[in-house]
Amino acid sequence: MKADKNNSTGRYRIIIGLMTLLGLYIMGTALRTMLPPQKEYWEEVSKRFTKANIPEPAARGNLLGCDGQILVGTLPRYRLLMDFRVADPDSTSKRRTEEWREEAYRTHFDSLAIGLARIFPDYSVKWFRERLEKGRKSKRFSYRIYPGYANYIQYQECLKLPILCESSLKSGFHVEEILQRHKPYGPLASRTLGDLYRDSDRAKCGLELSFDSILRGTPGSSHRTKLRSEWHKYIDQKPIDGHDLMTTIDINLQDMVDRTLRNKLMEPTVNGELGIAVVMEVKTGDIKAIANLTRAGDGQYYEMKNNAVSDLMEPGSTFKTASIMVALEDGKITKNTTVDTGSGIYNMHGSKMKDHNWNRGGYGVLDVSGVLEYSSNIGVSRLIDQAYHDDPDAFVRGLNREGVGRPLHLPFVGAGEPWVRHPEKQGRYWKNWSKTALAWMSIGYETMLPPISTLTFYNAIANNGRMVKPRFVTAELEEGRVVREFPVEEIMPSICKPSTLADIQEILEKVVSKGLGKKAGNGGKYFRVSGKTGTAMIASGSGGGYRSGTPRYMVSFCGYFPSEAPKYSCIVCIVKRGLPASGGGQCGPVFSEISQYIMSKGMYRDAEEAADSTSVFVPDVAQSNAQQTRELAKELGLDIRDINECAADTVAMGIVPDVKGMGARDAVYEMQRRGLKVKLHGSGRVKEQNMPPGTHVVKGKTITLTLKE
After folding, report:
1. With 70 as the cut, is the pLDDT of residue 693 above it?
2. Partner of 496 at 20 to 30 A CA spacing, among 145, 412, 580, 701?
3. In the prediction, which pLDDT does 683 show?
4. 215, 220, 226, 232: CA torsion to nearest 10
5. Predicted TM-score (pTM) of this structure
6. CA-to-CA distance for 663 and 72, rounded, in angstroms?
7. Peptide bond before 580: cis, by omega within 30 degrees of 0?
8. CATH of the domain spanning 626-708
9. Between 3.90.1310.10, 3.40.190.10, 3.40.50.150, 3.40.630.30, what CATH number should domain 52-247 receive?
10. The CATH homologous superfamily of the domain defined by 251-607
């Protein structure tokens, strides 16, 4: 027994001794790593395998249409990188990886270059060979093998190529994900929605810039550590995503307005340099569509600038309505007052003023209604000059009283502020004011207004005198929940007396039904339209005046509909060179198409409200292509105005639809109808969806749709 006890004690002593030696070894090793030269070595290794203080971007908020469709969203893009140097503290493992890479490049180098050129056809096979060879010689970490950014589909295709298909530790291939803004509807309302600077999250213009603090969110930070074959990310500070903004834009109407204006600009008799069209909701001031099309060097039209908001232009004859309103309000004239326009040419204080029909004998005697119906320059100028020649300041005060020239303070950097010339009294004379200034000012010269200011004035006439500020954003949302609303802003409760307003409304309806604005209406077949034509000659820059070179004109039509209960107002402007130049003849048809589209689509009144016992509604179309369905309906003689591609009952049941095969626009719409947020990968038609069709919808959850051409 005593011998066994002594043996056990000896074994314990040996074990304790071994453990003590092991502990001392561990402590010694740890101490060596803390002291030079081991310290420097491991710090260098740590730098290679750990990346600290990595910015963790917040997801930028989406810009949504008035129906919730995504107009501007964020999609991931990928920077393709290759480590051409192996960083592995294990010399044996490092040697094996280097040997594998050398053999792989000898065997698959050409195949890799060919594959990359196929995925990115903007660069040749030769270019990729040289790029890869340069990277191999440099022995660099994180070398960009493609200078641009790959989308999700391209990134997935790269993972199928030789060498790149292996693990990142073995091949050295890895990516950095960059979030970039994406516009599913391309250039529609592009300058109004805005942009970010390329390869940056800094806002450049439009709503992106004006509401940047809301959309941007708060970035976080993270660090990455490489453990054997994989990089592991650790979030140090979680980012706070930006909020979404609900805009007033109706993307379907925007599409129609853009196409209609573009087609008109391209007509040989127009050949416009610039086209502007804006649709506003009368009661709220909501901008439902805004198109700014400028002709580029290639002859095509692009959104280059938000001209409707920023460009100061002489409004021309659309300004005559404001001039006549001032005189009516001040009691200087009545709607029955007459004026002799003669043969169409009149000597106005030593300068010749002409009506557009001067070569056909003029209009003779016209009443006030006729003056605006036929847009007589002489008629308006004589009426205003007779009433205010000795006191032009009273006329300008009248314009201010009715809201003309009021700053709108729109949410856009670079928005133009109206400029209305003001006379100043100096003794018995008016300073900086000629004898002809009032006459020409009354017909739309000597004054500079952005088109949206002219529209705001006409919208007030339609809105029973109440002037409201144009609105572009209605709400701020966090994960689909409204956290702030942007209410309708009133500029003026009334621009004039009710009697004056009634006279002007009556006259503007006659301009379209009887006068020069007939092409802006529909012949009285469907509904009545009110408005005013405009034509202004544009002065050339650098002191060229109005007669230098081929004359340039700004033709326009501004009005509202339906006349009896106005719902929408609209302005159409075209800048062109040479004759013919007619606001009614060239802008009127665009206005007419827009107004008829809106009224026929039920934007004014829901179809169900107008239905009777004989009404037949075309059912929704399930699992189909919109264009094919429209063509089939046309063959069958069905008059359909809208097509929903997924069965309506799946909306009520809260079921995820099958959108595979649909375009991005239709797929996003169907998902958002069911309360889902949408994230898009790639472009083209939907190939995959990460929520199976038929599953129950969880409102507010994000569904990812993968698209491919």
Report:
1. yes
2. 412
3. 64
4. -70
5. 0.74
6. 16
7. yes
8. 3.30.10.20
9. 3.90.1310.10
10. DD-peptidase/beta-lactamase superfamily (3.40.710.10)
